[in-house]
Amino acid sequence: MRGFRNLMSRASFCRQRFNPHGAEINSSCRLASHRATYVSSTKTTKSVLNSGINGSLSGFKSLRSNLLPEQWNHFAGQRRTMFIQTQSTPNPSSLMFYPGKAVMDVGSADFPSARSAMNSPLAKALYGIDGITRVFFGSDFVTVTKSDDASWDFLKPEIFAAIMDFYSSGQPLFLDSQTAAAKDTAIHEEDSETVAMIKELLETRIRPAVQDDGGDIEYRGFDPETGIVKLRMQGACSGCPSSSVTLKSGIENMLMHYVSEVKGVEQELDAEDEDAALAGQME
Question: What range(s) does the Scaffold protein Nfu/NifU N-terminal domain occupy (predicted)?
Fold first, then answer.
């Protein structure tokens, strides 16, 4: 994945050339520039969006960079303007949305199913859009994953509306703040020196690179007998065609390089990923 190639080059695991701005040269996963969109929000956001695009496909495409028409009723509510940027990821089914505001104060949050999103008003609203299969919160972005048969041209306006309505509502990101962020890489007194080193590498060297691609990794454990580290891929990294390359060529190589006790890395699938993998085998 893009962020990991940059990381691996510094650790001598990848010999690709980079330009001065950090984007790769001659790579199949090119860093796409942010696509900016001005959008405005009131309680009637969706109706305004629909009137602005006139029901045409070209209207949807104009959302990528054009200012939406300001067809407002002064009695409909106070207008709020947001500058939302989108960025592609190595996973063609996932897009990163930057609302121009902080999303997660600490850590990240993954919502692999609609049931897991019940604690977050924003994640719940995004799952209310037909075709959304996964939601992920990063420090300043929201990654949304769609089904294969859904089109971004039709999903983007709905996603923009959901993000705008949430930030204008004043609701908290989580109904229960205690479940807000994962603490998987927190170092505990009972952790061995090996486990502490693994967690530190994941938190300081590996996680930032993975988050640049709209995803994250979750530490699931280390078996000292086999030397296997178990990780779970989240956000855009889950189901990404290049996730296995990232896991083996990137994460595994780095952990084995710095921690001699590590002999390999394995991916642990969540229930949704296991169901998807099983469905793929049956086809």
Answer: 84-170
